């Protein structure tokens, strides 16, 4: 027969498992309930929030919502900061300050700080912890602490279809063209042309697209093979498993 010690140990283990399941279920409920959408904005009153857009819970710092426009079907990760203006409760005029196009993705922990206009084009994807700002400290006076000197502000414009890697920083005055790739950890300033890949700190163009020659320097990996028509998600999963083969039906 089991000893009292074993009985109490089994009961304690069962209680821990039950508590763990309850905590995880509760947290999923909190995440779902705390998410912000056009239908459920909570306390946030954005100038516009498009259909299908979702801000995951918990949100980061958000203020100046009346001057923030979010397009449709945007995905805003957890702990993302979105701010318009230097501080809350300012009157920033009649026009939007921060604008996200349709289908923009901001990864977890990213910051978009718009003290003057910041525009992110449609279908731009940002990895986690990307920092985009239209404001930087000035240090003109060598006798005054940097934090006490009035900051400089310059608009930021990011074109549609860009991919901004994890930890990249987009500085005031930066203008990125269409379908620009920013490498992880890059620090971008100035103008970046369409269809360019930039890397480094400060970032520089390391690859670009030429209509006659293609990518220069040439890509080192082959282009992805398109998925054949008729292949189901289940067949793709089967192909990914070692020793399995699958394909569309011959019928």
Automatic annotation (TrEMBL):
Alphabetically sorted, this entry's keywords are: Repeat, Transferase
InterPro entries noted in UniProt? Hexapep, Hexapep_transf_CS, Hexapeptide_acetyltransf, Trimer_LpxA-like_sf
Entry's PROSITE patterns? HEXAPEP_TRANSFERASES (PS00101)
Which CDD domains does this entry report, sorted A to Z? LbH_MAT_like
Q: Which domain of life is it from?
A: Bacteria
- The answer on whether this UniProt entry bears the keyword Repeat reads yes
Q: Which family does it belong to?
A: Belongs to the transferase hexapeptide repeat family.
Q: Which PANTHER family does the UniProt record give?
A: ACETYLTRANSFERASE C18B11.09C-RELATED, SIALIC ACID SYNTHASE-RELATED
> What protein is this chain from?
Sugar acetyltransferase
Tell me the classification of the organism that encodes this protein.
Bacteria, Bacillati, Actinomycetota, Actinomycetes, Kitasatosporales
